[in-house]
Design brief:
Organism: Linderina pennispora
Structural class: mainly alpha
Helix content: 55-70%
Domain Globin-sensor: 12-189
CATH class: Mainly Alpha
CATH superfamily: Globins
Distance between the termini: 16 Å
Largest sheet: none
CATH topology: Globin-like
Number of strands: 0
Number of helices: 9
Radius of gyration: 17 Å
GO molecular function, one term: oxygen binding
Protein name: Globin-sensor domain-containing protein
Strand content: under 5%
């Protein structure tokens, strides 16, 4: 493994991480196979995520910062309500993300999108918004989203047990791949 390329070549990094954890084309197919069921779960998953973020002032405060066309709502976190315009926008973005997960073609364009998702939450160069979510919160949220999605999938009765197990495993592996694409902007080797 070329250590330098792990930090300079997105495809190479993905290939290494995916290969290491065993995230294969078959897993990608199982993500797609889950699309019809997951589509119905997306609103519940999105609401659960934002209800969780709303529970903690340290995570909710990020929504009162400037971001993608929304101006800061001031230092008073209480001014950003769960039904506010910025939260509605963010829920829409998470909905699109989850829908892409089960429908996107696995190619470099999709990989760049997943990388962008990690990048936009930091104050790294070449980024215009000022939002910077500390990694501890990203990591906790990824763990929570993974648990919510996997718990929901384990309750699906439309699949036989083998199919359900393979779909759950594919999601678990995917979330680790996505988490690495967050970590690359936080962890400086």
């Amino acid at each position: 493994i070329d250590r330098t390329r792990l930090y300079t070549d997105l495809q190479y990094r993905y290939d290494y991480v995916a290969g290491f954890i065993g995230f294969t084309k078959e897993d990608q197919e199982f993500l797609h196979k889950s699309a019809s069921v997951v589509a119905g779960l997306v609103p519940t998953i999105v609401d659960a995520v934002y209800d969780k973020l709303f529970m903690y002032d340290i995570t909710w405060k990020h929504f009162s910062e400037d971001q993608e066309g929304f101006h800061a709502q001031g230092p008073n976190v209480g001014r950003v309500e769960i039904g506010s315009e910025v939260i509605t926008f963010r829920k829409t973005m998470l909905t699109k993300y989850l829908k892409k997960l089960v429908s996107a073609e696995w190619n470099i364009a999709y990989l760049k999108y997943l990388d962008w998702v990690g990048h936009i939450h930091t104050t790294t160069p070449l980024k215009t918004s000022t939002i910077n979510v500390e990694y501890i919160h990203i990591n906790a949220l990824m763990g929570y989203v993974s648990a919510v999605v996997i718990d929901a999938l384990q309750g699906v009765e439309e699949w036989d047990s083998e199919t359900r197990q393979k779909i759950v495993s594919a999601y678990n592996k995917f979330f680790w791949v996505q988490n690495d694409l967050f970590a690359r902007y936080y962890v400086k080797e």
